[in-house]
Specification:
The protein is of the alpha/beta class. The protein has helices spanning 3-78, 81-94, 97-100, 119-128, 144-152, 166-169, 173-191, 213-222, 244-256, 272-285, and strands at residues 105-112, 134-138, 156-161, 197-198, 226-227, 232-233, 260-266, 291-293. It is built from 10 helices and 8 strands. Strands 1, 2, 3, 6, 7 and 8 form a 6-stranded parallel beta sheet that branches. The longest helix is centred in the N-terminal third of the chain and has 76 residues, at 3-78. The chain binds zinc ion (ZN). The site of zinc ion has 5 residues, from loops.
Length: 312
């Protein structure tokens, strides 16, 4: 290496050292400035958050005030006696019978095959004991007053069959539809009210219909009809006829063993013993607070012997 080379090399070294010093100064400066910049940024953010919080708290206050106003206007409303009564009535009606009459035996007396020459006597007896019941009727010309009386006195008027001839009703699905339509229209035209409840002739478990029972149930559903079978039978339709005390005993036993008893009885021209048995039943239960007689309504749990296959 000559002297010329040595000068050039020294200058190059000096420049490099200078550059290196500047770099170190820059890095130190950067790290000193960084916390300050961050602090300024945080202060700005904090300020923004504060003003957002202020806004939110204002909105919350407005909401609180509105709520207080609403509650106090609601309280003012519910002290009105008329409103209270409506409220109570509504609650009772939407409850199913099993909830509304919890702890009581619910008895639904049902009378099939009427009206008959005894219908008025039967209605008088029900009135005497202040009992409401359900009638599943057939078509009988000349009995318009009885159909109407059943409804007017607070009983339920369900439909059963037009002429109650098994071979017609259950011949096939169209025979069934025809029978249901006929009794439905017949009752609606007399009472002005569309029927809501149905009882199969012979019950839903009858073995006369050879087709698919689902088709029959589908048709009732289409017509908005709910069918009720029974879980207590009075056996008042037994051939030869049971005595009034035998019929009464069957019913009383059935009531004791069911919290909801749907009782099968008949309102027919040859069944005066049913009415005599009813008096025995009412007399023996009249002091029982835990037994209540009710008409079937849309809040009554259906008792059904056969249900749709898909619902089994
Ligand atoms: Zn019948």
């Amino acid at each position: 290496m000559d002297s010329n080379d040595s000068v050039l090399y020294n200058e190059f070294r000096k420049k490099r050292v200078k550059l290196f010093k500047r770099l170190i100064l820059f890095v130190i400066g950067f790290f000193i400035a960084l916390p300050n910049v961050l602090s300024i940024f945080l202060i700005i953010s904090l300020h923004n958050t504060n003003s957002s919080l202020d806004k939110l708290s204002n909105e919350l206050n407005i909401l609180k005030n509105t709520r207080t106003e609403l509650i106090s206007s609601e309280e003012n409303k519910t002290v009105l006696p008329e409103e209270n009564e409506i409220e109570e009535d509504y609650v009772l009606k939407v409850l199913p019978d099993s909830k509304e009459y919890e702890g009581q035996k619910r008895v639904y007396l049902t009378f099939d095959d009427g009206p008959s020459r005894y219908t008025n006597e039967l209605l008088d007896l029900l009135n005497e004991y202040d009992v409401k019941a359900t009638f599943f009727v057939i078509a009988q010309d000349g009995y318009d007053d009885e159909y109407k009386r059943i409804i007017n006195e607070g009983h339920t008027l369900g439909i059963h069959s037009y002429k109650h001839v098994y071979s017609d009703v259950y011949s096939n699905i169209s025979g069934f539809k025809n029978d249901v339509d006929s009794i439905y229209d017949y009752i609606e035209s007399i009472t002005g009210e569309a029927p809501l409840f149905y009882r199969f002739p012979g019950g839903s478990s009858n073995t006369i219909f050879k087709g698919d029972k689902d088709d029959l149930i589908d048709y009732l559903n289409d017509k908005n009809l709910v069918y009720y079978d029974w879980n207590v039978t009075s056996k008042d339709a037994t051939n030869g006829g049971l005595s009034k005390s035998q019929i009464a005993n069957n019913v009383l036993k059935g009531i004791e063993s069911n919290s909801e008893a749907v009782v099968l009885m008949h309102d027919a021209n040859d069944k005066h013993s049913t009415i005599e048995a009813l008096r025995i039943i009412f007399e023996s239960l009249k002091t029982r607070d835990d037994v209540i007689f009710l008409p079937i309504t849309e809040y009554t749990e259906p008792v059904q012997h056969v249900i749709k296959k898909s619902e089994e």
